[in-house]
Design brief:
Helix content is 72%, strand content 1%. The chain has 294 residues and is mostly helical. It has one domain: Farnesyl Diphosphate Synthase (Orthogonal Bundle), CATH 1.10.600. Bound molecules: geranylgeranyl diphosphate (GRG).
Length: 294
């Protein structure tokens, strides 16, 4: 079952994260590593690394070649959640079923833990020992840091902050989420494609899948923020409304938003047609996500 397959991939990523971050325990900076590990170990679906490992398999790439990137992507995602929860941003006190990082370690340490994870992501992918041409590693690293930077996730966060309390339309909302949520999901597909030296047509197909999946995922996120269950989600619901945010649900209503999730999911799946059975896991993942409760 796809649920077990996802859980297996996630377990492998968690073991590797444990090795990468665990080795840091006995050095002099105990507090900051404790704070970084707290949020990484708190769980989460590990969706982005799972997507990366599924694409690696589809391209016949040894998972060892992509694992560092998968862990780095999860570190960057986790840093973004730590910072997003800060009082200066969404001011949330529950994440991944636990008190948010700043609630446990204080604001200053939470900021540093986020910064530390971002930096450690770079250190991780730039470590020696790949069995692939250096050019491909550089291209993949560029994908990762462009996606998480101002032209990607941070840029989306800026649009989000500037849109608060404003009457944004569906087109603006899509741009915001293509960057804020979509950019890392897009990188999750493009990095293994780049590492496997995929051709242009394949790269376009991978990008199409990820971009459509990213929007479907975000609409679902908006739906769960209104109709989800806080205990299942591991975070408080109603955060969008409290922060005066326009969402797919406020624009389209529940039914309209649910329909759009299915439309984007179908579009995502259609993009992978050329890969035939090789894309089965990714197809099932996309369908599975439409039913997600967290
Ligand atoms: C640079 C100061 C500074 C802040 C960065 C960029 C940023 C703050 C925040 C944006 C990141 C963000 C919160 C995007 C929303 C994407 C989203 C739907 C997150 C939830 O992802 P899941 O559901 O979470 O995959 P889990 O916990 O399962 O990993």
């Amino acid at each position: 079952m796809i649920r077990d397959i996802i859980a297996d991939y996630a377990k492998n990523v968690e073991s590797e994260l444990d090795i990468l971050l665990g080795g840091k325990n006995d050095c002099c900076q105990k507090k900051i590593y404790e704070s970084m590990r707290y949020s990484v170990d708190a769980g989460g679906k590990r969706l982005r690394p799972v997507i990366m490992l599924m694409f690696a398999k589809m391209f016949g790439l040894d998972s060892r070649h992509v694992m560092r990137f998968a862990c780095a992507l999860e570190m960057i995602h986790t840093y973004s959640l730590i910072h997003d929860d800060l009082p200066a941003m969404d001011n949330d006190d529950l994440r991944r079923g636990k008190p948010t990082n700043h609630k446990v370690f204080g604001e200053a340490m939470a900021i540093l833990a986020g910064d530390g994870l971002l930096n450690f992501a770079a250190e991780t992918v730039l470590e020696k020992g790949y069995n692939l041409p250096a050019e491909r590693i550089i291209d993949a690293a560029r994908e990762l840091f462009n996606a998480s930077g101002v032209s990607g996730m941070i840029g989306g966060q800026v649009i989000d902050i500037e849109s608060e309390g404003k009457n944004v339309g569906i087109k603006e909302l899509e741009l915001l989420h293509r960057l804020k949520t979509g950019a890392l999901i897009r990188a999750a597909g493009r990095i293994p494609a780049v590492l496997a030296a995929a051709d242009r047509e394949q790269l376009l197909a991978v990008t199409g899948y990820c971009e459509n999946l990213g929007i479907a995922f975000q609409i679902q996120d908006d739906l769960l923020d209104v109709f989800g269950d806080s205990a299942e989600l591991g975070k408080n619901i109603g955060s969008d409304e409290a922060n005066g945010k326009v969402t797919y649900v406020t624009i389209l209503g529940r039914e309209g938003a649910e329909k759009l999730v299915d439309e984007y999911t179908d579009k995502a799946i259609a993009c992978l047609e050329q890969f035939g059975n090789g894309a089965l896991e990714l197809t099932e993942l996309a369908r599975y996500l439409t039913k997600r409760r967290n």
